[in-house]
Amino acid sequence: MAEMTTLTADDGHQLGAYRATPPGPPRGSLVVIQEIFGANGHIRRTCDGWAADGYVALAPALFDRVERNIELGYAQADIEQGRELRGKISADDAVRDVAAAVRELARTGLPVGVVGYCWGGTLAWLSATRIDGVKAAVSYYGGGIAEAAAEKPRCPVMLHYGETDASIPKEHYEKMRPLLPAESVFVYPAGHGFNCDERGSFHPPSAQLARERTLAFFRQHIG
Fold it and tell me: Is 192 a catalytic residue?
């Protein structure tokens, strides 16, 4: 089952969110954090996929702080618009909205994890370092993580990167390796956005392997 719901951040800001619920008893819950394209169809389908694996999945519409009902595609004009919108939202406010989603899921009594992609990948790291109640966090190609490497995660973290990602140099993930336990940082023969089946950079083998690792990670730490 899927529905739209409304979240309230601790500063009073209200934002929309897409919620997908498993057909059977849930094993845990996940906040699914968007790329720079909004909580669009791909993100909603990603939530549906996590729900099929047994998790209540909730994707907050982070662009609601600037403009509501943003749903972008992947053309160059969409990328430019997405970057412009992201630039108007501070990291603190974005984390505040993710925290609202974490609190909403915590009300179910289920353990809460976070998984984010692109911009959301960076926010997944910041969720692990800043938000109480997050039991595990997974980041896909989060370009801002290395800049926040000094922040200490409060829960287990897994990071996925593409070795041909033009926007994230090798130095970024090599910086993270010694800061995390073994088998926490994975690099794939793919580029940025390799998990998104609507992008030209989609790389099915890498996406499948990263998903298998992520699912095993969440089953270990969330349920």
Answer: yes
> Which helix (H) or strand (E) element contains residue 195?
none
- Is 0.85 topped by the overall pTM? yes
Cα angle 11-17-50, degrees, rounded to a multiple of 5:
130
pLDDT at 159: 98
Asked if 128 contacts 114 with a C-beta cutoff of 8 angstroms, the reply is yes
**Which residue out of 192, 196, 203, 221 is catalytically annotated?**
192
Output the DSSP codes for 21-66: --SS--SEEEEEE--TT-S-HHHHHHHHHHHHTTEEEEEE-GGGGT
- Whether residue 48 lies in the annotated active site: no
DSSP strand pairing (185-188 vs 157-162): parallel
The confidence score (pLDDT) of residue 101 equals 98
The overall longest dimension of the chain from CA atoms, in Å, is 43
**Known catalytic residue: 165?**
yes
Catalytic residue selected from 47, 64, 155, 165? 165
What's the number of CA atoms in the CB half-sphere (13 Å) around residue 138? 23
Residue count of the chain = 223
User: 47, 118, 155, 196: which is the annotated catalytic residue?
Assistant: 118
